Amino acid sequence: MHFLTFDTSLDKTYLTLFNEKNAIDTEIIETHDDKYHSAYLIQNLVNLLKKHNLTVKNIEAIGVNIGPGSFTGIRACLTIARVIAQQLEIPLVGVPSTVILAQINKNKNKTIVLMDARKGMCYFAEYDNNGEEIQEPHLEPIETLSIPDESTIISDKVMQNFLKEQEINSICFSDINEDLGVLLGSLTYKKLQKGSYHWAKVKPLYLQKPSITISKKNLI
Fold this sequence. Notes:
Blueprint: E1 2-7, E2 13-19, E3 22-29, H1 41-51, E4 61-65, H2 71-88, E5 92-95, H3 97-102, E6 110-118, E7 121-127, E8 133-141, E9 151-155, H4 157-165, E10 171-172, H5 180-194
Parallel strand pairs: 1-4, 4-5, 6-9, 9-10
Antiparallel strand pairs: 1-2, 2-3, 6-7, 7-8
């Protein structure tokens, strides 16, 4: 079974092709020039498949990062994935970014995932030593943040800098050599073994409104 995973919700685009549980190719695309990295998703998807003499018709399932993260990235990733899954009538698996990032922790202890949500807020999620959810992804005020003892913290750069001021150590996911597309694929494969996943049931996990909104008055 060939399946694809896309992740444009975080700092880069992670695009990975799998054959069963094995990653056979991966692309990591960074933002450059004046275009955000998610703008290159479709072309890189086509190129990756062509490289292996495949087309989307050879893909039997898709896994995506549903957020939280970049509003634009989540929307781009999920829109493309839902269209492909609907047209091909194949399973679509959605995985929260905090679940993906929690896989970075290889220690046998709890994992806290923290990401900046701006305006004095952060995205917070907690997982036990088996990766099972203790607290689902949610918004928390940074100033009242409480970190459980003996936990490994996975964070972005903004939250890492904040934690340093509190003399708390964290692992910044953008500073380490970890292919998040491979982690997403592993989670996707496990979910596919347990059940069916319809594209219409996969929803974005924004957790908050985008920073720029259009007034309803302008739509009248």
